[in-house]
């Protein structure tokens, strides 16, 4: 096992009806910016619950944060916070709103061009001058409610970039599984697959003798396989909803990544498909992930075999199990409504590989993956296999 430090200060409040605790979590006398997305919270009653819980606070609202939130939109909230002397932000939404609020929090007091936060991937360490924030999660998927990462899109350059740091953890997050009742099936499917791939990116590397990390990762995968197909049909079932939500948080709150190698290349490539074609985040991962395993099979096959045996109970030679594990993964993605080719999700895609390879080359991303063996040639192969 590798050396590690574990730091996660998020106060996580989980369960039915917990939104009413908001007033006890936000410092008294705060002037609060409530940030939200395109308006789903008005239809499903979450806005009313938040508004009731915030009685007595001085509240300003900022809506319209898009899925795959735009820098350009978020900067409007930064201006409001500066002008109106707001001292706490409450994100009410899914990963996009929460990530957007992380960026807003970081940008308000940032000395310099806020775009550099993304292009230079500035690290905001504990103690950095950021605006404190909390979250009310409305969509289980990203784990953003309990991690310190953020992914922001830039309209002007058609990019999706990430940043973070230990100052970017929410002060608290309220996770009430009943909020998923109003999620469209597509978003429920996305949530299951995003979380599933988060686990795979921290698990499917090479054997490292981190036995407990592997077992926790496999448990999250098995739980998602068990509840995923059911929860998209029955999102009002509390048992399914709560297990789904907690699996998503556990998949990316930092725990399973400690002491083990990880490989975020599927996400990095997937972000380009969202930036280019506006394909939902999770759907880009379902397209790229299996092809990445195929192209990097030689260096991932031991872990693929372990995954095949323990998660899918496959039998055969190590090589056979490893290959079947990729097919079983694709089958699960299909069960969850994913279309695993770019051409099934977008049109006019013939220049995709050129575009992504050029972009990664310019950024100096020429050796990704847990063994730094994902070269630009392999990248091209992965993207072309995904057409
Ligand atoms: O905007 P509204 O109207 O609220 O509608 C949203 C949005 O259209 C809707 N929705 C959310 N909660 C709902 C609801 N509809 C009905 N009922 C509810 N309870 O769902 C749509 C998608 O929301 P979004 O927040 O975009 O989805 P998700 O949580 O999947 O977030 C995706 C974003 O997170 C980033 C992605 O790149 C993408 O930008 N990620 C963030 C990560 C992190 N911070 O750690 C890691 C991930 O890998 C990911 O990259
Ligand atoms: Zn993701």
From TrEMBL:
<dbReference type="InterPro" id="IPR001670">
    <property type="entry name" value="ADH_Fe/GldA"/>
</dbReference>
<dbReference type="GO" id="GO:0004022">
    <property type="term" value="F:alcohol dehydrogenase (NAD+) activity"/>
</dbReference>
<dbReference type="InterPro" id="IPR056798">
    <property type="entry name" value="ADH_Fe_C"/>
</dbReference>
<dbReference type="InterPro" id="IPR018211">
    <property type="entry name" value="ADH_Fe_CS"/>
</dbReference>
<feature type="domain" description="Alcohol dehydrogenase iron-type/glycerol dehydrogenase GldA">
    <location>
        <begin position="9"/>
        <end position="177"/>
    </location>
</feature>
<protein>
    <submittedName>
        <fullName>Iron-containing alcohol dehydrogenase</fullName>
        <ecNumber>1.1.1.1</ecNumber>
    </submittedName>
</protein>
<dbReference type="Pfam" id="PF25137">
    <property type="entry name" value="ADH_Fe_C"/>
</dbReference>
<feature type="domain" description="Fe-containing alcohol dehydrogenase-like C-terminal">
    <location>
        <begin position="192"/>
        <end position="358"/>
    </location>
</feature>
<dbReference type="InterPro" id="IPR044731">
    <property type="entry name" value="BDH-like"/>
</dbReference>
<dbReference type="Pfam" id="PF00465">
    <property type="entry name" value="Fe-ADH"/>
</dbReference>
<keyword id="KW-0560">Oxidoreductase</keyword>
